[in-house]
């Protein structure tokens, strides 16, 4: 009985893996791939695992939350990929739960985000982890993202699930492929991508 159940589970996993591989077989790897899904499902973890298997150098950014920069506050920071940055006041985007000054947030995204997306020699992949609705008013940053989508360097990124004309513009760009990460497919995606 246990062998039958185990064998059936193995067949189900193998079938899901074949389906994902078949789905990606037609994917033009010169296009850009953005992951989406529920918060905490493992999108950033998947990107970090893919980067470990891929040849560098990489450019772009990760956004990270920190509890250690401003006393008693959770903050969000934009860290450049490959630069050994740590969360600090210099890369602070905004404080979670605080009244948000959209103009100030836009200015920080414009400064930090554009610097992270500036082309560097030899960069083979740009990481954009993650893009969400806070970037809506950051015109320079938005232009840098759209320029990268039209450029030659492949992008691996994360799009938050939120209502935003900017997120919609990325998701519907002809060079972008969107993949939804779920608890059921995240481990299979790690081997299929």
TrEMBL record:
It comes from the Bacteria. Keywords: ATP-binding, Hydrolase, Nucleotide-binding. The keyword Hydrolase applies. GO terms for molecular function: ATP binding; ribonucleoside triphosphate phosphatase activity. The keyword DNA-binding does not apply. This is AAA+ ATPase domain-containing protein. It comes from Anaerotruncus colihominis.
């Amino acid at each position: 009985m246990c062998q039958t159940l185990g064998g059936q589970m193995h067949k189900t996993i193998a079938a899901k893996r074949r389906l994902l591989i078949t789905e990606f077989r037609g994917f033009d790897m010169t296009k850009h791939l953005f992951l989406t899904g529920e918060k905490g499902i493992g999108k950033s973890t998947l990107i970090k695992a893919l980067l470990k298997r891929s040849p560098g150098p990489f450019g772009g950014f990760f956004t990270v939350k920190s509890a250690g920069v401003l006393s008693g506050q959770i903050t969000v920071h934009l860290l450049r990929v490959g630069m050994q940055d740590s969360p600090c006041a210099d890369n602070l985007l905004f404080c979670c739960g605080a009244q948000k000054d959209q103009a100030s947030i836009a200015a920080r995204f414009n400064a930090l985000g554009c610097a992270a997306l500036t082309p560097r020699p030899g960069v083979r992949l740009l990481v954009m982890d993650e893009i969400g609705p806070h970037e809506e008013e950051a015109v320079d940053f938005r232009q840098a993202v759209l320029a990268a989508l039209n450029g030659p360097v492949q992008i691996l990124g994360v799009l938050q699930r939120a209502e935003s004309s900017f997120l919609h513009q990325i998701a519907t760009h002809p060079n972008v492929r969107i993949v939804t990460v779920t608890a059921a497919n995240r481990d299979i995606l790690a081997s299929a991508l």
